[in-house]
Design brief:
The chain is α+β, with helices and mostly antiparallel strands. It has a single domain, classed as Roll (Nuclear Transport Factor 2, Chain: A), CATH 3.10.450. 48% of the residues lie in helices and 31% in strands. It is built from 5 helices and 4 strands, in the order αααααββββ. A 4-stranded antiparallel β-sheet has the order 1-2-3-4. The termini are far apart.
Length: 135
Amino acid sequence: MRVAVLLVALSIAFSPIAAFADDVTTAQGVIRAQEQAFGHDDAATAYSYAAPAVRQIFPAPDIFMSMVQNGYAPVYRHKSFEFGDSKTEGSSIAQRVHIIDANGEAWEALYTLEQQADGSYKITGCSLLKAGQAV
């Protein structure tokens, strides 16, 4: 009986960790899918991962893609794109990405994502800093 109670207690205690890990994995999948869409110059698919607030600022896929090409070149074209630390808070996830750009320079991107009413995650923003720069 004690073993059964212990097993139930452990499963309850660790279920938020599993949910957290699933959410982070889902969010990383969204970021990776958008990154691959950029690599294929697929503006419509890349745009589909943007949160509604981002879509209000950039009301069409071609406008969004132009912004990424001009303001986020290391995200748009790179040699390396690897996930770092992540943090969840409520329905939001912050995900660090280590990027080596097309010229071999290191960058740090901080993506933010928010869970939507349908349960999906959409990208709400991306901050980009050259590695080693102070915030």
